[in-house]
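Handout, tutorial session.
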Amino acid sequence: MKNILVTGGAGFIGSHLVRLLVNKYPEYKIINIDVLTYAGNLANLKDVEDKPNYEFVKCDICDFEKIQKIFIDYQVEGVIHLAAESHVDRSIKDPFSFAQTNVMGTLSLLQAAKHVWDGNFEDKLFYHVSTDEVYGSLGDEGFFTEGTSYDPHSPYSASKASSDHFVRAFQDTFGLPTVISNCSNNYGSYQFPEKLIPLFINNICNDKPLPVYGKGENVRDWLFVNDHARAIDVIFHKGKLGDTYNIGGFNEWKNIDLIKVLIATTDRLLGRKKGTSEKLITYVTDRAGHDVRYAIDATKLKKELGWEPTLQFEEGIEKTVKWYLENKEWMDSITSGEYEQYYEAMYKG
């Protein structure tokens, strides 16, 4: 039995990873810890919650004593650390929370692993999941590689860059076996609707404005979340200790072009006339420090570990829109209360 601790496993990416690990490795014990903030939802894992190799523990990663106890009680041998505050807009309004969770929370986990494993690092691994935003912004050409210098521009990316540095420091200073991955923008089912794709699908369904920052010309690389979970699985089992792996979808889209694909797909699946929802596009003041372009070079991961995306973007979008339309109850259950207030504050124009 291999005991794997997944942090943030009730969130968007985390729940997809937990599901994959629980189903693929019945001989593993998967311990999911999550503090269940607004973006953590145990309903995301209803299909595996009764599996014998799965257990959930509600825990704040900043609670060092409790984290250490979990390491001891479950004899944790591997960590896949996803728990994080992740929305750039929220980081601009509340950078303290991002520093607390993303930096101090990561440090809490690292210190617990160092203390409990106590130099016995054989068959142990601390895998830190990070973001391409730590690299900053690209011009019209070029790609982020694993050797790209860090140049974070938002409080969110600064907090993730700091956590990346702590992970490497624990490897260099204490010999802790670590690996890091930096991914591009994820999309798919169970994503909290503060992020562009589920937000816009929901707004199209409800004939609400589609708030587009600036002129919508910012470029992002898009990665289907199931493919990201597969990549994490491959890196966890086959990645080289101390290495970094970029995970990208080889899918660059301008925001405005992506939005038009979303509109066309959602309108068609709703039985509406083509272009019906384009009138909902509403240009709003650009985000402070908005990076122009992200683009990941995932060649290393493909060449060394054999991973590559399984879906073309249009196919992934089709699957994603269908899921949200078929799971309206899931969406309705979370788009209320605090979310509504936050939405109004962020996108009032």
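The second record follows below. Compare its token runs with those of the first.
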Amino acid sequence: MNYASEIAKLKQGKLASVYLFLGTESYLTDSAKQTLIDAVLKPDEMDLNFGNYDMEEVLVGVALDDAESVPFFGDKRLVIIDRPTFLTAEKTKQKLEHDLVWLENYLKNPPEFTVLAFFAPYEKLDERKKITKLVKKVATTIDVKALSEKETRSFLKETIDNEGFQISPEAFELFIQLTDAKLSLAMGELPKLFLYAGDSQTITKQAVNDLVPKSLEQNIFALVEYVLKKRVSDALSLYQDLLLQKEDPIKINAILMTQFRLLVQVKILEKKGYQQGDIASALKVHPYRVKLAIQQARKFEEKVLKDAFHGLIETEYRLKTGKGDKEMQFELFVLQFSALK
């Protein structure tokens, strides 16, 4: 089901007896859960008519017992079932014996006074299971799956517009890059940018750069660029900044190796005619990471990328065998690589 249209129905008070929220996008999930709560219950009804049960910790029978109870001092009861692993093929540490027959009987005749909602943070369910087929047949399914980069961009632009703010194309691109095109992360950063923009209602590139923190991986991305372009001073300066942030040289080198391996793989696969989506599927890497890797790899010859990757392998060996000062091994690699023709 379309997320926006179903959320609109909830806000209008058009309620179903059973819902299935399926997907891994935490921002959409949290937003949908709050909207559902607000649609079903008044604030003073929460204590008596709301239940939230984690199926990795509690038996489904406990939730069903609650769902079959008549509401106290209200018209509706809301029961949320989180992480219903019995709808998947996943194995859990806690081996709970859920009474699925009871659940089947409930779903065949759900009481009018209860809204039962399954929040399934999974990419897919086990469609072979009888209980899964029944849930999907009875429930109103709302997708809360991770958005594509295009969908994330559209969602963020619409959110910024709806709040009455503007953002320059350059600032928006930097914002997408610093949040890895992840909706939950980006939505968490927007309030700071809105507050900083103030009456001007304009989000600038400088504001994004100053306010949105850079992750270690993003600093590594910049470090890779400095290394490949043989900007020795910039590479060593950024490396020292990372050390001052208490990052471990072995960890830095490991992430660098991962990034250079990706660049080499992308270079080879693109040469073979693979498109961005095919590469992401083949390597099981987030499409946005692949997009950035393609852009970066195209600037350099395959031999240059392989030379850097092999140099980092040697650096890792020295780091792990204790040969020389640990913090100087990367600096040595940068100097040696920059000297290559």
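Points raised in discussion: The beta strands are 18-22, 50-54, 77-82, 114-120, 140-143, 166-167, 202-203.
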